[in-house]
Amino acid sequence: MSHDEDFFEPSSWDERYSSPDKMWSGNANPQLVAEAGRLEPGTALDLGCGEGGDVIWLARQGWTATGADFSAKGLERAAAHAAEAGVAERCDWWQVDARTFEAGGRTFDLVTTHFLHPPEGSITEVVRRLAPAVAPGGHLLVVGHAPSATFHHHDEKRLRAMWHSADLVPVLEELGGFEVLVAEERPRTVTRDGREMEIEDATLLARHTA
Ligand SMILES: C[S@@+](CC[C@H](N)C(=O)[O-])C[C@H]1O[C@@H](n2cnc3c(N)ncnc32)[C@H](O)[C@@H]1O
User: Is position 2 within any domain?
Assistant: First the structure.
C-alpha cells in the first residue's frame, strides 16, 4: 500500500515507521514546550506520540509519560528512543486508535496530542474521548495544523482533516467542567525539504475545573 492510499490507517503509518530513517526531528513540539513547561510535572498522556519526541521531553522534565499511538512500529521506535535517552523508566506505551479511544478510568494531569489529524473533522470526536482522561485540575493540550494555502499540495481528504482551534471549543463547552485557557492559531516558520514555510499551529489548552 502506498502512503497516501490509506493515510488515516495504522498500516500506512507502520509502513512509514519501517523505513530506516527517522521521520521526525526528535525535538519536542514548540506548543508543548511553551505550555507544559509552565505546569508542575505529574502524569501525562501523549496520543499520536509517533517516534516519542514529546514523551521523551516530558519525561526529562520530570513527568511520568504514556505515549499512545495506533502504529505498533511507531511505538517500537518511541520506546527505543526513550531507552537511548535514558528515560525509559518514566515512560510507558499504549497501542490505541484515537477514533475509538476510551480512557477506561485512567486519568492524567496532562493529556496532549500533536498533529493527529483524523479524517473529516473527527478531531472533535477525539477531543470528546480524551476529555474524561484529564484528571481534575489537569490540562488538555490539542495542537494541529490550521488549514492554509501552505498545504495546497495535499489531497482533499488530508485538507479536510486539518482544523482550527475554535472548532474544538464547543465540544468542551458542551461537556462542561473545562475552562478554555488558549484557543488560537500560533504562527511559526518551519523548514521542509530545504524550504522555509509559514504555518500556524491550531492550539487549544483547557483546564479541567470539575
Ligand atoms: C504527524 S504524526 C505526529 C507525531 C508526533 N505527535 C509529533 O508531533 O511528532 C501523527 C501520529 O499520529 C498517529 N495517528 C494517526 N492517526 C491516529 C489514530 N487514529 N489513533 C492513534 N494514532 C494515530 C500516527 O501513527 C503518527 O504517529
Answer: no
